[in-house]
Amino acid sequence: MAASILAPGISTIYNVPDISDVRVMGEVLKEFGAQVVLSDHSVSIDTTLVSLVETPSELGKEMRASVALLGALIGRFGKARVAMPGGCEIGSRKLDQHYRTLEALGVCFNLKPGIIDAQVTESLRGAHVKLEFPSVGVTENLMMAAVKAQGTTSIENAAREPEIVDLANFLRAMGAQIKDAGSPQITIEGTDRLSPVEGYKTVGDRIEAGTFLIAGALGYGPVTVSGVAPENLAAALAVLKEMGVEVSTTRDSITVRREGPLKAVTIETGPHPGFPTDLQAQFAILAILAQGESTITENIFESRFGFVDKLLSMGAEIDVEGRQAHINGVARLSGAPVQAPDLRGGAALVLAGLIANGRTDVSGIEHIERGYENFVKKLQDIGAHIERRG
């Protein structure tokens, strides 16, 4: 949606989830003058009249929509003025690497309270940029700016997530020249000839898919998730198998079933193709039912165990030491009132409630609805006793 700004005209995107983050991004784009129509899992974005305005702070605080627009605004206008972003409180997500890498392309930043003010000093020019960490957001912003820069840009230590490949494919459909997206080094030849894209279909959400596969492994299987490429979840599927879950795949679907006990496992999150940080909280629920002690090491965000104290109130045995959680399997959890601390932690607490004795009330569901469409209905469809209130 952010990349649509790069080419004036109407772009349409399909396979778009009906989630609050998409709706917020639509509202942010409207503030910039775009016409946005969301309908039946598609979005039409007319960026003809887009102009430079400041992203409303209240919208920027809801998600990281504002910083996601940096590269696209710089690419089209040579400058950007956006609000400091918000999102889940899962640890430090400093913007320094965004600034440093875009500065290599000729962008100058003037930071004010709550505002990011960026401007190309002379011209947007290609450069060799090496990332300190393969950040998805930084890679995306660099790609969107570099497609309009003069000359060649190479991004070393680039993020390799499937979503990076998806953005590259969208930009190629606009006329961009991008090589090796999905590898540690991406090469981009700048061009001033980009066009809107009609009917681009986005990649399936691997984290949503993984969450429902975990629900199946918890005892609600067999569960089949379709519309997702199994290779995009390779690390998570390997852990499921290690834990004793039967996994079968087709080209675009994954089925899980479990008959025997779950086995303890050791997990370390990492950039793709490593184990995704966005699934560690959900896998912690599987580990609670496993025999023996499991260990989860969080290498991406230092504050991503905010859900643990809620699980402790439900009877889980978890000891957190810094970035590592040691989880001893227990026979059963007990229902309790809990509050979702963030998007993935909230989804994990719902899964915990499904295997707990008694009733569990999960509040703060606005976090969950940022990233899951019809979460309750889909869980009901696989046999969960769950309802949404309020």
CATH class of the largest domain: Alpha Beta
Q: Estimate percent helicity.
A: 25-40%
Give start-end ranges of low-pLDDT stretches: 89-93
Sheet with most strands: 4 strands, mixed
In the residues, how many domains can be counted?
2
Radius of gyration: 21 Å
Strand segment tally: 22
List the helices and strands and how they pair.
Elements: E1 10-14, H1 20-31, E2 35-39, E3 42-46, H2 57-60, H3 65-68, H4 70-77, E4 79-83, H5 96-103, E5 107-112, E6 115-120, E7 128-130, H6 136-146, E8 152-156, H7 162-174, E9 177-179, E10 185-189, E11 200-201, H8 206-220, E12 223-226, H9 234-242, E13 246-249, E14 253-257, E15 266-268, H10 280-289, E16 293-297, H11 308-313, E17 317-321, E18 324-328, E19 333-334, E20 337-339, H12 343-355, E21 356-357, E22 361-363, H13 365-368, H14 375-381
Parallel strand pairs: 1-11, 7-8, 15-16, 19-21, 20-22
Antiparallel strand pairs: 1-3, 2-3, 4-6, 5-6, 8-10, 9-10, 12-14, 13-14, 16-18, 17-18
Verbal overview:
With 390 residues, the protein is α/β, with parallel strands linked by helices. It is built from 14 helices and 22 strands. The protein has 2 domains: 3-201, Alpha-beta prism (UDP-n-acetylglucosamine1-carboxyvinyl-transferase, Chain), CATH 3.65.10.10; 206-381, UDP-n-acetylglucosamine1-carboxyvinyl-transferase, Chain (Alpha-beta prism), CATH 3.65.10. Strands 2-3-1-11 form a 4-stranded mixed sheet, covered by helices on one side. A 4-stranded mixed sheet has the order 7-8-10-9, with helices on one face. Helix 5 packs parallel to helix 6 (136-146).
